Amino acid sequence: MLMAAATFNSLTLPFSKPEFPFSSIARTHIPTATLNLSRFRPTGFLLCSLSSDHPTTAAGGQLHHKTNTNSTDPQPQIHTCTWNWKGYSIRYQYSGSSGPALVLVHGFGANSNHWRKNIPVLAKSHRVYAIDLIGYGYSDKPNPREVGDSFYTFETWGSQLNDFCSSVVKDKAFFICNSIGGLVGLQAAVAKPEICRGLFLLNISLRMLHVKKQPWFGRPFIASFQSLLRNTAVGKLFFGSVATPESVRSILCQCYHDTSQVTEELVQIILHPGLEPGAVDVFLEFICYSGGPLPEELLPQVECPVLIAWGDKDPWESIELGRAYGDFDTVEDFVVLPNVGHCPQDEAPHLVNPLVESFVSRHSKSPANASTTI
């Protein structure tokens, strides 16, 4: 979960050694500044309802929700659905009836509810989807020991994202991603470039736990520690110690610069799915995932436009390292978000939403031709 990121970053950063060039200049710095789902097109095997509430699981793993019937609420309605992907139940949210398609991809330990401040605003002029990656949120969490070591990887999540666009969105889409979600978006865009119209990356994970970013003398220590967590009771004891409201709140207060945004609602958004069966095994599997692609390996392969935005007070993913990504030819701009931490979409939606709208507008056709079936 998101909850342990601070622990592992502080553990491994002293050993870390970035392998890509640095740039001392951010291309764009925006001043502090403005924020706030609609008709669903049923496709395939789906279960949908209207909701602004957290889902509960009923018999058969289906999600059931209450409907927001407040007639005075001007916001577009949010549709919460499940999609059957390769036999697994995947939860997503949808809103908006026209305009370009956007798919919002959450970070480590989070879920589609982490976009609750973005979906209603963006849905006014876009078709917005927010998905729970398999293993996270209210999607299924197959046991890693049963599905194999190569299941919880960026290749799997990238394939899930592309299949989602083909089966549910039925259109090309812009991927709006936070943290490890950025790797998912990049992997999907590289695997099937015909699907992704553009990538908007927020504080993308630097993957400092990656084996390539560890000097030779640090690798055995990290590998031993990961093995201890994954293969002994220590891992579940550790997870139990952080999977509490107090620990989640404390860790969120580390990664949010404006701690007033760490509300009880946010704590429950992160904590509740992490208490579901199987969540601990996915958590331990991912923190032992030291291979796979790096952002600097994927960015040169992307064919669509890319914009990177970064909260300059992120204690986990240093902006000084992140600036280097702005130097890639595929990246059109690197935007500094002042006084913002690791999750800008939730901490500073008044900064992020206009940036998303502007980016999508620049790279979209006219509204009449915005939809292209794939």
Automatic annotation (TrEMBL):
Q: Which domain of life is it from?
A: Eukaryota
Report domain AB hydrolase-1 positions: 100-349
- TM ranges are none
**Pfam families the UniProt entry points to:** Abhydrolase_1
This protein is called: AB hydrolase-1 domain-containing protein
Q: Which organism is it from?
A: Gossypium mustelinum (Cotton)
What does UniProt list as this organism's lineage?
Answer: Eukaryota, Viridiplantae, Streptophyta, Embryophyta, Tracheophyta
